[in-house]
Amino acid sequence: MAKIYISQEDWGSEEEFIIFNDSQKVSKWYIGPSDYEDYADRTREFLSEFICMQDSFPVFLTFEPYIDQAVKLEKLLNDNAISYTSRVEGIGSRMFPVFTITLKDVQDLQLVLEETFWMAAANQFFAFSFTDNCTYKLAMKKTVMRKEKPYMLPSFQMEENSTVITTWHDGQGFNLYTSNERYKTLERLISHLPTSTIVENE
């Protein structure tokens, strides 16, 4: 039985290193565990339950693993006949591997989450989408010193009924970006949560 907190969030700040093609259509929700203890494990477990509840397989995971984990990840996916593509993105000396993994069912989802979520909890980019709609684009972002710097950022095509889920800081919950009417209000979102979920917003 998961106990969670939900809040609707403003977005589009300099702190968000993600791009959407039609941001006016996109709503953002934060969903996270109510209990701080073992929050990364709680997030992983609830994320799996939430995705399964949507019954929208295949699901696509776009993931930036650590460079030294890329070969291990390829072996895991090949050994389990999980479809994926891999490439290198970046600019200048800041190059990094990107995997797009096609999760065809619950078993694929749970295996990949079990083996890789520790990197999501370490703040590597980790995003699920119900459509294969992610590319990378060059964008200018302000650094801590308020100077603009070029980055290659994940960019999602948010057509009608698109949804993207990204892990939040340190794996403490996740952000849900959506143009889907089923998640447009708190009441609608709650109606699509796993049946045993307790929402503790007060």
Report on the structure:
There is one protein chain. This protein is α+β, with helices and mostly antiparallel strands. It has helices spanning 39-54, 70-79, 106-121, 186-191; strands at 3-9, 19-20, 27-33, 59-63, 84-91, 94-103, 126-129, 134-142, 148-156, 163-167, 174-178, 198-199. It has one domain. The protein is globular and about 45 Å long. The strands form two sheets. It has a nine-stranded mixed sheet. Strands 2-9-8 form a three-stranded mixed sheet, with no helix packed on it.
Number of helices: 4
The value of Rg in angstroms is: 17 Å
Rounded average pLDDT: 92
Count of individual domains: 1
Query: What general form does the structure show?
Result: globular
Protein structure class: alpha+beta
Topology:
Layout: E1 3-9, E2 19-20, E3 27-33, H1 39-54, E4 59-63, H2 70-79, E5 84-91, E6 94-103, H3 106-121, E7 126-129, E8 134-142, E9 148-156, E10 163-167, E11 174-178, H4 186-191, E12 198-199
Parallel strand pairs: 1-12, 2-9
Antiparallel strand pairs: 1-3, 3-11, 4-6, 4-7, 5-6, 7-10, 8-9, 10-11
Helix pairs in contact: 1-3
